[in-house]
Design goal:
The longest helix has 20 residues. This protein has two domains: 76 residues, Arc Repressor Mutant, subunit A; 99 residues, Arc Repressor Mutant, subunit A (Orthogonal Bundle). The chain is built from nine helices and five strands. The strands form two sheets. The chain has a three-stranded antiparallel beta sheet with strand order 1-3-2. A two-stranded antiparallel ribbon has the order 4-5. Helix content is 56%, strand content 13%. The chain is α+β, with helices and mostly antiparallel strands and 189 residues long. The radius of gyration is 21 Å and the shape is elongated. Helix 1 crosses helix 3, helix 2 packs across helix 3 and helix 5 packs across helix 7.
Length: 189
Amino acid sequence: MEEKEAKKAIEGILFAMGKSVEVSAMAEALGLTAEQVDAIVEELISEYESQDRGFSIVKLEGAYQMCTVKEVYEYLIRIAKQPKKYVLSDVMLETLSIIAYKQPVTKAEIEKIRGVSSDHAVSRLVDYELIEEVGRLDAPGRPMLFGTTEEFLRVFGVTSIEDLPTLSAVQMEEYRQQAEAEASLEVDV
């Protein structure tokens, strides 16, 4: 397959699917290697950026998706009138952070870390498609295990979970001291 034809096919696939498509699936469909597909997609991304297009291709953990660029959002909302806009409360952000960093994680583990029920937050995060059930724990009751989704990666602008920021040892120690201080205040009350 010629590069020009492969480029055209990949562009059409990503446009028509409307969601992420795994590199391996495109490679198999086109009779190319995953490396060839990656190279062609990277070339398309560069072309779109240099031409200042209204869309681009984003990479999401071994898959690609065609998306509009941020700069056209205000025009999209004029047409869509009521775009999906999620409001993440502090409780939801805290719950989402726990899931992102500890995944796969059960609701009981989340509640143990937070110290309070997380049913509502987990339910809303599932509704927002930021997290999903990724399996069941092999334990009594077979509790659900939760993990983040591709939507999470898109919303937070990371290509994989490994791209999430990490805390330094100094920050960890500061947070530990704050938590201990707060715990002792609760006991004194």
